[in-house]
Amino acid sequence: MRQDVAEPKLETEGETGDTVRRCALTRMRLPKQDLIRFVLAPTGEIVPDLKERLPGRGVWVAADHSVVAEAAKRNVFARALKAQAKVPPGLADQVDRLLTDAALGALTLANKAGEVVFGTAKVEEAIAKAKVAALIHASDAAEDGCRKLDGRFRATARGETPAPIRLFSADELGLASGKTNVIHAALIQGGAAAKFLASASRAERYRKGSAAAFAQPIGSDTDKE
């Protein structure tokens, strides 16, 4: 990646101490976890840097499919970098796939750590034992089965239950579990499960659209870059 232009230093901090950056499209300041970093590859093409490790100056865009699509359409990357930048076709969809793959990888790790159970029977058993942190339903699962498990989870849970995760297809859940025909799964509380939840939540917010992309900016557009 390009290394000849240094990335601007941190702009400011939010009320909770989180680092924030300004979205190149909306010009709103948001916590870094609500943005996607992009860099310019040696080929002159814009590439997403989800792990924020690639060298070179970064361009930050709100982690929202519609915002990234609009940023690509307007090519705000060239303006921010003050250099020619080629935007690959389907950049917003590429980011969606990368976020989903990252979440699927985190689910695989949670499974290896013994913090996920797959299959309706095992999910029901975990719910009965009040061990469930969150439910996962295949995106192509029948709604009736999802409602039944969701109802049982709410009935046995202590306090408010998180919304079920509907990010993956049955085939993708099969890849994470090493099983076939996986429709339902349940997360068991633990560190690996918590990391998966954070990763899956980010992917879902990106796909559905995050209100943080347009509301309650941190700071104002008159602040210095």
Number of beta strands: 9
Q: Pairing-aware structural class of the strands and helices? A: alpha+beta
Helix proportion: 25-40%
CATH topology of the largest domain: 60s Ribosomal Protein L30, Chain: A
Q: Output mean pLDDT.
A: 86
Whole-number total of structural domains: 2
Coarse shape: elongated
The N- and C-terminal alpha carbons lie at a distance of 23 Å
Gyration radius, in Å: 20 Å
What is the oligomer described by this structure? single chain
Poorly predicted regions are: 1-11, 13-17, 215-225
The profile of the biggest β sheet is: 3 strands, antiparallel
How do the strands of the widest beta sheet line up side by side?
1-2-3
Beta-strand residue percentage: 15-25%
Series of secondary-structure elements, N-terminal to C-terminal: EEEEEEHHHEHEHHEH
